[in-house]
TrEMBL record:
Pfam families: Sigma70_r2, Sigma70_r4_2. Residues 1-25 are annotated as: Disordered. This is Sigma-70 family RNA polymerase sigma factor. Signal peptide: none annotated. Residues 139-192 form the RNA polymerase sigma factor 70 region 4 type domain.
Amino acid sequence: MPKLERSLQSQPRDAGHPAEPTADDLLPLVARGDESAFERLYDVVSGLVFGLIRRVVRDQAQSEEVFQEVMLEVWRTATRFDPARGSANTWIMTLTHRRAVDRVRSAQAATHREEHVARLDPNRPFDEVSEQVSGRLERRQVRRCLSFLTDLQRESVLLAYYQGYSYPEVASLLGLPLGTVKTRMRDGLIRLRDCMGVTG
């Protein structure tokens, strides 16, 4: 798979060439696994793709993540493109819009979950739960209750509370949005609290 970590501001490498290929020229070659064609397609469509994502998602960091996801999906699914049903640009932009909308919906769902958790016990600070989990309970009981968390909750909790990483550091290590990591940790700690019978 070609590297995708190229600058969003990269310029087409053949700038000024009179016969610059179009997305319609390149996408069929990408479908056959041509990495060089993919790199040129990246240059051709990156501005349009990122512009649409930025308008839908708005957040810069999340827009960059969605951009990488879109370009990876183009590389992986180019064989699904059917020129009889529309242009390559239309196919790519449809895929882009779907990914961007999915990210917005996911972020909204995470926010709603955080608000719901906060309403469960509004008088009890979230940090108090983590202090009680780490301070009052036997290590063996903590390990037992950790086994009841999902893999995603457990890795977030372990990194933050047992390896000392901050929320942004955990998000960076796991390659996830900060809001997603916060939701995982909050849900995981609430499940730990319930498992271990922590009371206020």
